[in-house]
Write a structure and sequence with these properties.
Cofactor: Mn(2+); Mg(2+)
Helix content: 10-25%
Protein name: protein-serine/threonine phosphatase
Number of helices: 8
Shape: globular
Strand content: 25-35%
Family: Belongs to the PP2C family.
Keywords: Hydrolase, Magnesium, Manganese, Metal-binding, Protein phosphatase
Distance between the termini: 6 Å
Largest sheet: 10 strands, antiparallel
Order of helices and strands: EEEEEHHEEEEEHEEEEEHHHHEHEE
EC number: 3.1.3.16
Number of strands: 18
Radius of gyration: 21 Å
Structural class: alpha+beta
């Protein structure tokens, strides 16, 4: 069996967690410098079995729609970034269920693979659509709520990634002349990309309105930018189509088959000696910097607080675009802040290759971004593969 999945499902799936307000630093280590933005949450540096990681989230919406998690096992790390839209329910649901599905399916199959990740995503989608069906008569707008979903697992020296939507995973690797090279590991399922529009048109040749320019942006059915997601039931199941009383989500012609899909893009990579770190982030970060800019910031600065530094850099750029000072932006309250930037989640995972070859004991830890939940993970130490 394998070390961080097998016994987890047979134990209680609801870990006991302690609660701490990270931005106030109650019961947690204080980082090297204070957090001045009241909407910024962070865990500046924690350990995992083959390195360290840094985690930060900043809120912009009235109710934060980014949910995220890091799960640390004795020989593995799981990272999830869930960028919600229309509300927080879908991203919160993914945070509560996807990792559990991954453990269950991995135990049943005795391994981790791209197909195991696909199965966990599919089970999560099925679960959320069941919730929509049960809630639709009471809360019809739940059919319009969805989320992007980016997950990564490092296990036995291999990285596995599944992605739906436009969050992004980037790896920083050493190149010639001691320079860091950024490589994007995930494609974005966003109608702003020509290849995505071509894919949608080829899948829906009967529908000339499958992608429409609306408010200066290409959108699926003129409504939504992402083409793959968890949720968004009204664009997947005809029974959840809205009537004209919901003009924002009303389709002139009812759908007869899914317009969006929950099929993830998958990739795996054996980590090489030159690979130094991974950046997992929602699209709110990438609106303000390139892959290479982000990688150079990580490479040239101390690890402690590096996720927070990436967010602060993005916020400074957002302020500059509005010709305002960064400190003025920090005073803008949630809800109003969305005019200037999106919710942003950043998780930087450092890879220390000397630790990949060793049995390093680290605390099994579960962290949920921004919602003040920290505690023991569902990971359990068991025997290695037989």
């Amino acid at each position: 069996m394998f070390s961080w999945f097998a016994k987890a499902v047979s134990s209680c799936l609801g870990p006991v967690r302690r609660y701490a307000r990270m931005s106030n630093y109650d019961d947690v280590e204080e980082p090297s410098s204070p957090v001045e933005d009241p909407l910024l949450w962070c865990r500046d540096l924690e350990k995992h079995s083959c390195g360290e990681f840094s985690f930060a989230v900043v809120q912009a919406n009235e109710v934060i729609e980014d949910h995220s998690q890091v799960e640390i096992g004795s020989d593995a790390i799981f990272v999830g970034v869930y960028d919600g839209h229309g509300g927080p329910e879908a991203s919160r649901f993914i945070s509560d269920h996807l990792f559990q599905h991954l453990m269950r399916i991995a135990q049943e199959n005795g391994t981790i693979s791209e197909e195991i990740l696909r199965g966990a995503v599919s089970a999560t989608e099925d679960g959320f659509l069941t919730l929509v069906r049960r809630s639709y008569m009471i809360k019809p707008l739940i059919a319009s709520i969805g989320s992007c979903c980016l997950v990564g697992v490092i296990w036995k020296g291999t990285l596995y990634i599944a992605n739906l939507g436009d969050s992004r995973a980037v790896i920083g690797s050493m190149g010639g002349s001691n320079k860091i090279i950024a490589e994007q590991l995930t494609g974005e399922h966003n109608a702003s990309k020509e290849e995505v529009r071509q894919e949608l048109r080829s899948l829906h040749p009967e529908d000339p309105q499958i992608v429409v320019m609306n408010r200066g942006t290409w959108r699926v059915k003129g409504i939504i930018q992402v083409s793959r997601s968890i949720g968004d039931a009204y664009l997947k199941r005809p029974q959840f189509s809205f009537d004209p009383s919901f003009p924002r989500f009303h389709l002139p012609q009812p759908i007869t088959r899914p317009v969006l899909t929950a099929e993830p893009s998958l990739c795996s990579r054996v980590l090489q000696a030159q690979d130094r770190f991974l950046i997992f982030a929602s699209d709110g970060l990438w609106e303000h910097m390139t892959n290479q800019e982000a990688a150079e910031i990580v490479y040239k600065n101390p690890r402690n607080g590096i996720a927070r530094k990436l967010i602060n850099t993005a916020l400074k750029e957002a302020a500059n675009k509005r010709k305002m000072k960064y400190k003025e932006l920090q005073k803008v309250e949630k809800g109003d802040r969305r005019i200037y930037h999106d919710d942003i989640t950043v998780i930087v995972v450092f890879i220390d290759h000397e630790l990949l070859e060793k049995k390093v004991t680290v605390p099994e830890l579960s962290i949920r971004g921004f919602i003040d939940t920290v505690g023991p993970s569902n990971f359990k130490s068991v025997q290695e593969f037989m």
